[in-house]
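This section describes the prediction task in plain terms. A model, or a person checking by hand, is given the sequence of a single protein chain and must write out its three-dimensional structure as a string of tokens. No templates, partner chains or ligands are provided. The sample shown here is typical of the held-out split.
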Amino acid sequence: MTDLAAELNGLFAPPPATSLAPEVLSELQSILRLHGLSAQELSYKWESYTMKMGSESTVLNFDNVRAFKKELQEMLERDSRGKAGRSVDRRTHATPRGGGMGDDVFGMFDSTIPNTPLQHRSTKPSTKRKAAFETPAVPKFSKADGMSSPTDGRANGQTNGLPSAPFSERPNAGQIVETLNGQLPPFELPLAPAAEPRVKLTANTDLKKFFYKPMAMHLSEASEVLDDRIDQLQTLIQTHHNLEDSAFGSAASQSTNEVIAVGRVACDSPDGKFNAASMLLEMSRRGGAGLRIPLNVEKLSHQFFPGQIIAVRGINASGSYFSVSEILEVPLPPPVVNQPAVLSSYNERLGLSDGDSSNANHALNVMIASGPYTADDNLSFEPLNALCEQAAESYADVLVLIGPILDVDHPLLASGDFDLPDDPSIQPDKATLNDVFRLLIGTPISALAQRVPNITIVMVPSVRDAVNKHVSWPQEPFDRKVLGLPKQAKVVSNPVTFSLNESMVAINASDVLYDLRSEEVVIGKPKDNSLLSRLPRHLIEQRHFYPLFPPVDRTILPKPGTVDGVATGMPLDLSYLKLGEWLNVKPDLLITPSTLPPFGKIVESVLVVNPGSLSKRKGPGTYAQLAIHPRHITAEEQTEKMIPHNLYDRARVDIVRI
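The expected answer:
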């Protein structure tokens, strides 16, 4: 019991505390006994619970743990009733169940948890200025009796649970819920917008390669791409550890000699549960004839997930499995470096000469948001309008909008039964989704561009975006002309790497962190107990935006707002998986939107930001506000040929309620 208590303290004790209150610890142990869970599984369920409740409602105290225990018990009872109901004959007119009562832990809280926004630090805009960003109100969805066509469960246009509270009545709008590098000052509001753009945007990704023909994948091409990933990392590992070619071998070959094998972690069954007992190593054709062999990793402490490329040292004495004695470290990419003169030129662009680089007047104001951008029961896009208003009020230098922007999983879009605002250029019976985008999303973006002409708006698509013809990942950019976006809007691919002045930014619109959390298996004691730090480290080590293979099963993902809906998931085009590889350096800033709690963290000298969703299904969400200060160059560094950017040390990150 002492070991269990220590494990619970390590997983649940909020820093800087090292132990839980006795009554809280006792209650957590009671939950473990009642449900037969491990401490790690319980921590995952607690994280899911806090995601829906909101951080201010889920402080780890006795009352909240009791409420958490009650929710788990109610979910177990609902599951039992559902299984019992499926064992008897179906009734023709059974009472329909709301989608919020599904098996997923996210759906079970939707009808019970209010979303509590937080306090804002900026001044309230006047009614006249705010009106510039408001899209004409879209009537709430309703089906006239007898007038609707038969539809499936996914596109029935219904939303689950109670309607969301009016967005205009949200309390504490704009409160900062988390801060990274709080010792740095936030950006200082200028008296007027800059006369010239303070940001130079440079694409580090060849966007033309993303305009490929989707849904034309060949098995031979997919196999070669997967093999190339293994061979490339084997070369890196061999160089990093200074190993001879003779040290490597096939893990599938029976031998009493110790060898090093490099391959991809896989599960022994396509439909099976990935765990230590089902773990295989799949080798490339060059390194092991493409064979698979079970791994024995019981003596190790490590984290694994399907698709992870690892180098293992061990023996295969019996020919039936490979016994692993060591996992070799995968070398990390080097940091981005630049010439001091180049960094000085960017500092001058921000108005800094020999002054203090920590002066808030010189900081770049960068705002980052991720979709969805409106609640499930309306298409008014009020959170997007509020975000554009805040960007205009603060004279933002950069606004990053990450998809889904026009979400194909939105109940009203899925049904196709909704009204558009009056527009003389659009005939209602001939309107397309591009027209919907222009009216509901293009309007506030164009208004923002008019008020802040020197702003840079970066738009990244998602596989859930209804107006992007690429249904698989990687994706081509939005069509700016068709969607009527202003010149300030820079449309980029998904994923993408670009530079904001000197800083290299990497963005992937897919929720890879949630997918990794769903599949990750931790054996022994993890090197990093923080889940939100450990998951981005996988991306850095694997040098890929989406290292998972195969992608997570759609049925275990959080359900969309439609009744009996299934999440879009992560459709991969394996022939072009190489477009998701990183460059040969670590980015300064990695943006990974996720349904996991929003955060800003420093992982392996990379600033990692999850802005959260701007709108939840039934309430407002969060966005990230960055104040990027200039790179102060010392006298010693002026004589160096190359110096690192050190963005993680000079960027303040605030997670803010919209």
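For orientation: The mean pLDDT is 84.
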